[in-house]
Design goal:
82% of the residues lie in helices and 0% in strands. It is mainly α. The radius of gyration is 26 Å and the shape is flat.
Length: 367
């Protein structure tokens, strides 16, 4: 998709005399020589690694009792070390995709080894401790091999730790998740920067969003929702406002920091809609939400398309919600649909105007 747009833009610039044809050819060849962010071969290789890991674990589990104990331990250790050594050798030989598959096999086999050896020797512990050890092993492997694939596995394992049944944990307190979830998210973010696995950062941000949802589930009060919305607003301003001391750092991480902090802000506001019953309170909250939606479009509309479209959707949904709470209760169903259609048409017109202004601003900046 991007390649097609790039080619069209280069041809347009060539027609305008900004570039010559040989330069365009060199630019396209340089782009085509880059490693694609999406590779069907890489995806299939990772699926194959998962299937092979599952097959080996099921094969061992099916014949577990017939295998001598020493052979079990030696076989599991050999599988883990063999996969990691193969991955390391393939990295040195310049085959990162195949290396990622072997490293994934080693990391998944390490998790299976924890469960199998624990069962074989009746080691004390619980599922939470096993998942934490598995997560720690994945983090160490990601650091040693600087692997983006293992970093992604560590991110998913962080979610698995959070979803573990904490009621069966022997020494887990009720407040453990309050600091463990953000700690794991920070670890994953650091791994993302170290391994240059940009797309994996979304897992860490989603883990932080799930952490805030967990906090609200434990303390579902208006004060908690206001606190979450306030934290989201503060994080968004730090990431989106150019005068912020953290703006440059947030920009280096792409559009994700501003988008997810903006998402947390909006989630806090939407939760507050369910906390307030009075029409006046909901009306005031609706006005605040509309201001936040417009603010997101103003601050990030030009540079962050994810925030811009989220602001559009929020403005449209909140406008229809306010219409249903006020006008809809007065004029009836048919009138409400008529007003809603007009409101949506006005929103669509406003979006078109804003998009045109953004397009003109970008054209002036390029000129």
């Amino acid at each position: 998709m991007y390649r097609g747009r790039l080619e069209r833009d280069l041809k347009l610039w060539t027609q305008q005399g900004l570039l010559d044809a040989p330069t365009v050819d060199r630019l396209l060849k340089e782009y085509d020589s880059r490693e694609s962010s999406f590779s069907l071969g890489r995806v299939l290789m990772m699926i194959a690694a998962l299937l092979v890991s599952a097959a080996l674990l099921l094969l061992v589990a099916a014949n577990w009792e017939a295998i001598p104990r020493l052979v079990r331990v030696v076989g599991i250790v050999a599988l883990i070390w063999g996969a990691y050594l193969a991955g390391g050798l393939l990295i040195q030989r310049g085959a990162p995709r195949l290396a990622a598959a072997f490293l994934a096999v080693g990391t998944l086999a390490f998790g299976g080894a924890i469960a199998l050896i624990g069962q074989m020797y009746h080691l004390s512990g619980d599922a939470l401790q096993a998942m934490l050890v598995w997560f720690a092993g994945a983090v160490i492997a990601a650091i040693l091999f600087r692997s983006g694939a293992v970093t992604a596995i560590a991110g998913f394992l962080a979610f698995a730790v959070a979803w573990t049944d904490w009621s069966e944990a022997y020494h887990a307190s009720d407040t453990l998740l309050l600091w463990l979830m953000p700690l794991m998210a920070v670890i994953v973010i650091l791994l993302v920067r170290y391994t240059d696995a940009g797309r994996v950062r979304h897992i860490a941000y989603l883990l932080l969003v799930a952490w805030l949802a967990f906090i609200y589930g434990e303390h579902d009060t208006p004060a908690t929702a206001i606190t979450i919305a306030s934290l989201g607003a503060l994080a968004y301003l730090l990431a989106a406002v150019p005068q912020s001391p953290l703006h440059a750092l947030a920009r280096s991480a792409g559009a994700a920091p501003a988008f997810y902090s903006y998402l947390v802000l909006l989630l806090g506001l939407f939760v507050l809609h369910a906390e307030f019953d009075a029409v006046g309170d909901r009306l005031m909250l609706g006005i605040i939400t509309l201001v936040v939606a417009i603010g997101g479009i103003v601050f990030s509309g030009k540079e962050n398309g994810a925030v811009r479209y989220l602001g559009y959707v929020t403005f449209a949904v909140e406008t229809l919600y306010l219409a249903s709470e006020t006008i809809g209760s007065i004029i009836g169903t048919s009138g409400f649909f008529l007003i809603s259609g007009l409101v949506v048409a006005l929103i669509a017109w406003a979006v078109i105007v804003v998009e045109r202004r953004f397009s003109k601003a970008e054209t002036k900046a390029e000129a």
